[in-house]
Amino acid sequence: MIAENTQTQMRKGILEYCVLLIISRGEIYASDIIAELKSAKLLVVEGTLYPLLTRLKNNGLLSYNWVESTSGPPRKYYVLTEDGRGMVKQLDTTWQELSYAIETSKQTNK
Amino acid sequence: MKRTLNINIGNSLIHIEEDAYELLTGYLNEIKAHFAKSADDFEIVTDIENRIAEMFREILTTQQKAAINTNDVQTIIAQMGTVRDFQSSEEEEENAFVPPYSAGIKRLYRDTEQGMVAGVCAGLGHYLNIEDRWIRLFALLSVLVGGAGILAYFVMWIIVPRAQTRSEKMYMKGEAINLQGFIRNFQDEMENNQLIKRSGTFITEFLDVLGKFISGTGKTIFKFVAGTIILMSGIMLLGLIVVLAVFLGVWDAGANEIFPLSMVDQAYQSTLLFAAFIFFAVPLLALLLFSARVAFSSRPVNKAVSFSLLIVWLLGTATGIFYIAKVTADFKEEAEFTQTSPLKPYATYTLVLDKSRFFSKEDSVRYQINSDSYRGRIIVDHNDGPFQRPVDVRIRIERSMDGKFAVVQNFSAHGKSFDIALKNAQSIHYDFLQQDSVLNFSPKLYLTKNNYWRNQEVNVTVKVPVGTKLILNKDLDRYLEDYRSWNCDQEGEDNRDFAEWVMTEDGLKCQKEINGEHH
Description:
The complex is a heterodimer of chains A (110) and B (519). Chain A is of the alpha+beta class.
């Protein structure tokens, strides 16, 4: 239970970072984000993505454009805002720090 | 076979099966309840709906399906995740999910899946949380008490709706209308592998029940009834053939005096008889064939046979109607004439009914013409029989105004025209004869040959002055108007054949009455 909780916390933060990374590569549709996350084996259920995207958008890190689709109604394509890019850079730094911390911790453990 | 619905989800029109729709609705309601805290959450729900719509479209196109079913919805729910999955990945741990519907809401429905007849008792059982058997027992007892249970049952059958959809069934059982409830209910159903009874309105359900009854015990009764019908119509058909033969024979014998036949011209008697035969026989035959077919499901009656039967019947009926109209037209006009003849005066007259044939000279001549059987069988026999003509002889006794003794015979008849009516009236032969003080009345009139019954009537009026004594044979009673001789019976003398009357200023009075006045 405690382990589960920690895993959840870790995954939550990393999920947010990954989503921003995926979007930072260019304009992308929500389903494609999901597909990428799935191939990365990070996403458990799709439903969790939408609240995340909405929160990121509301925080000004993302914006989206409506793009016409050939098969169905228009789709939301997400892009990073300037703030978003800044955020990604910050997170990159954070991630390096964290991975260093973990690597270091593991080595000392050994 | 399942009902499908069209839903508009995420701006797409999706065909979805009814139970799948219920599952989806439950899922979306839960999601909406979960994301119902801020305006942004509306956007989340919209995004999720759009994604679901997209997945539906994919399923429909890739699997070449016409409609989304429950499996598809479950696949999507697994992919999208339930509210519980969202909770664990969200920050606000304190916002634990509260089910939007409490598990306690119950509604009254009829449970046709567990019901014995229409599911009223089973539905009540769910609603009251009592085992249905107790409710059934109670219902049966109420029938014994006064039968109100049956009425109540039928009323509830009509008023209480049947639990048709999954959510209705869940309301009936008081299960929570949310995703867990849906899935549990769905799985229960899969495990039990219950056959969902096909039924619609009250009427179709009723017919369904009736149909079961008929196909079961009812079938034997039905066959028995059909067999009886076949037997009866067969016998009646045979009877009709016999009657036809008898009538043809009787008519052939020239028995024109027999009442209903005597109306019809000889020229079309046989035709009319055959028409009548067809009118009765063809429907009987059709009934027989139809019953045989229905009861024993032998090969259906040939269409050609049915049609020719119908045509024969129509022809026969039309012919019959034509001749009946023709005969009826012969009754259009009426004519009458009166013949007054004086009576030899006597102080006392005896009026008798001359049952035996009275042969006058002209009678003798007349009977030479007719066959012997005519006389022997029909005419002398004057009992009331089935072929008795309506009363066509009426005798009245009146006070003579001018003091003379007379008898007035009034002959009347109907006909196509006045001439013919008069001729018909003239064809009447009525025997009345005075033999000294005895007045002989014939019980009936006779028609000279080849004259048909056209409502010929004779009114015989005997006119006698005041003070004349009349001794009336009781046989005359049925021909007399206004007088009934048994009124004049003296006590203890019931069996007398004659009654004594006296003509007074006030009309005919009993001798007994006059005696009574004197004393």
